[in-house]
């Protein structure tokens, strides 16, 4: 295998980086979809989304320390962040609806600092090391080389979640309300639906997805209070590249950004940030609304 | 005359409404009795649309009294007014882009479904399908297009869909804002026949209409709105026989 090379890199190394890129991309997709849903429905740019990602990771790692069950953490982290998201929407964000896009943006920006500082106070500045749980350690031979089992699990699990989410939005009544509410919240109210409840639920759902992404990402590099900051930037790129409010766009863009990050880190590790913003600039030049974006679209 | 005995289904008293600093409604009063078709006519900007929006709860700043089925609804949000049996077909139709005709129709009954005593979702899904089928029979133009993206239909078909969607939850009263606007005459006649059928089925209608001739044909009573208040009010037949009043207030 190793005698095949592309651009000086052995093929199996490239394949490994590709899997790493898709795994990173899966994280970005989960974070980006939440961001995109919340923006698509409520016009709220949730700057605390990275902080929900980080706190979700901490909740998961903390619980793992007590119970030793990664599976429990995988359920508890999104649940906890979903509940926190509900509280944040109900108490902090809701009074700001109808006041333009700036107010909730500033509020969530401030909230992200509060969340990061709280974690620093509670768990220390240095972060916690965290590896893949024993049952997901090791490597798997896929015929073209060995791949870390955890990354493959992460990809499969995330894609399952995204698939379930797609079914939820496309096939259920609540999903229909979400799609309609993103386009025309007023007509949804006229048809008897209490839109504020829909907004509450979607904010909670978005934050739960961020929490899930956090605990899924934890075994990749451990958890630190700052782990949400780069992810937020990447998730913004994902929503912009994919098209604001587009679920399929977020998936496509998330994987694209993940692969670009992984491949760039192979040739020039310092340039990954620049590479994704270059990607964003390029996409916006060709398609100003993103790859699959339509005005006010969701779906 | 039964009208003497029965209280009006909808009573608007001394309604005032603002958008920002512009004062649109300046003490408008009207009544609609159960089973009637009542039409509001008047020039553009007279306040007809704002009247309907206020009745549906879509105007943030308003004063006065709006009573529907004996309940004061002035401060109730739109979704509660829906649950009391009010339906609203806006001038712009507001067909939701990205959704099929069928999905737009389902949207019209989703909330009503939640209202019913039936706990299990499955039976209500059945109700939903049955209702869509019944509505599609009433509006044959929609029947072949159920799976089509609704926004790709013609203006007239979209208007039919907007009306059909409002009827999905079997409302007590429908507010219709300029349904004939920008629609082919042949479709307009079909639509007005539909209104007569709705009335026959027991639905009360409050209509805003520029096409005064057609509106007079199907209406029981007419209010002329000017400068945010009612300036004339009579049975439809009476206005029909008064070309002078028609010319003064209804000329566009």
UniProtKB/TrEMBL annotation, chain A:
Pfam families: BPD_transp_2. Its main location: membrane. One of its GO terms (biological process) is amino acid transport. It is a multi-pass membrane protein. The keyword Transmembrane applies. GO terms for molecular function: transmembrane transporter activity. One of its GO terms (cellular component) is plasma membrane. It is found in: Cell membrane. Keywords: Amino-acid transport, Cell membrane, Membrane, Transmembrane, Transmembrane helix, Transport. The keyword Transmembrane helix applies. The chain crosses the membrane at residues 14-37, 44-64, 70-93, 105-128, 148-169, 198-220, 240-262, 274-292. PANTHER family: ABC TRANSPORTER ATP-BINDING PROTEIN, BRANCHED-CHAIN AMINO ACID TRANSPORT SYSTEM PERMEASE PROTEIN LIVH. Belongs to the binding-protein-dependent transport system permease family. LivHM subfamily. This is ABC transporter permease. It comes from Methylobacterium variabile.
């Amino acid at each position: 295998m190793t005698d095949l090379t592309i651009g000086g890199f052995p093929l199996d190394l490239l394949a490994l980086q590709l899997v790493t890129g898709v795994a990173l991309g899966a994280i970005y997709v989960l974070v980006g979809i939440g961001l995109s849903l919340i923006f698509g429905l409520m016009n709220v740019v949730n700057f605390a989304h990275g902080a929900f990602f980080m706190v979700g990771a901490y909740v998961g790692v903390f619980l793992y320390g007590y119970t030793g069950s990664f599976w429990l953490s995988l359920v508890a982290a999104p649940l906890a962040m979903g509940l926190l998201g509900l509280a944040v929407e109900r108490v902090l964000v809701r009074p700001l609806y109808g006041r333009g896009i700036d107010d909730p943006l500033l509020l969530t920006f401030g909230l992200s600092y509060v969340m990061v500082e709280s974690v620093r106070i509670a768990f220390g500045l240095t972060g916690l090391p965290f590896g893949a749980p024993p049952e997901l350690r090791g490597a798997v031979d896929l015929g073209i080389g060995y791949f870390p089992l955890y990354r493959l699990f992460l990809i499969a699990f995330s894609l399952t979640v995204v698939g379930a989410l797609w079914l939820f939005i496309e096939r259920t009544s609540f999903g229909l309300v979400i799609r309609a509410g993103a386009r025309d919240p007023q007509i949804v109210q006229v048809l008897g639906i209490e839109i504020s409840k829909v907004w509450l639920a979607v904010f909670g759902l978005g934050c739960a997805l961020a929490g899930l992404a956090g605990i899924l990402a934890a075994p990749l590099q451990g958890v630190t209070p700052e782990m949400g900051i780069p992810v937020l930037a990447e998730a913004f790129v994902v929503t912009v590249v994919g098209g604001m409010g587009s679920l399929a766009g977020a998936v496509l863009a998330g994987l694209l950004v993940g692969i670009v990050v992984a491949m760039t880190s192979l040739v020039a590790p310092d340039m990954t940030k620049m590479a994704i913003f270059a990607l964003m600039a390029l996409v916006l030049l060709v398609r100003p609304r993103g790859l699959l974006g339509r005005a006010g679209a969701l779906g | 005359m039964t009208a003497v005995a029965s209280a009006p289904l909808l009573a608007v008293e001394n309604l005032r409404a603002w958008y920002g600093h512009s004062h649109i409604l300046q003490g408008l009063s009207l009544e609609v009795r159960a089973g009637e078709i009542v039409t509001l006519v008047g020039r553009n900007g007279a306040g007809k649309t704002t009247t309907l929006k206020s009745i549906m709860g879509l105007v943030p700043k308003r004063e006065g009294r709006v009573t529907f089925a004996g309940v004061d609804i002035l401060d109730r949000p739109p979704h509660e007014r829906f649950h009391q049996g009010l339906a609203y077909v806006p001038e712009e139709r507001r067909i939701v882009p990205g959704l099929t005709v069928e999905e737009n129709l389902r949207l019209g009954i989703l909330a009503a479904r939640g209202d019913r005593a039936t706990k299990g979702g499955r039976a209500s899904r059945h109700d939903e399908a049955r209702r869509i089928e019944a509505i599609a029979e009433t509006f044959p133009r929609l029947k072949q297009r159920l799976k089509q993206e609704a926004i790709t239909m013609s203006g007239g078909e979209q208007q039919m869909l907007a009306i059909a969607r409002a009827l999905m939850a079997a409302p007590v009263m429908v507010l219709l804002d300029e349904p004939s606007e920008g629609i082919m005459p042949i479709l307009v006649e079909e639509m007005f026949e539909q209104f007569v059928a709705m009335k026959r089925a027991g639905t009360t209608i409050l209509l805003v209409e520029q096409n005064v001739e057609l509106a007079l044909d199907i209406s029981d009573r007419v209010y002329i709105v000017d400068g945010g208040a009612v300036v004339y009010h009579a049975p439809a037949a009476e206005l029909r026989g008064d070309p002078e009043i028609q010319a003064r207030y209804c000329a566009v």
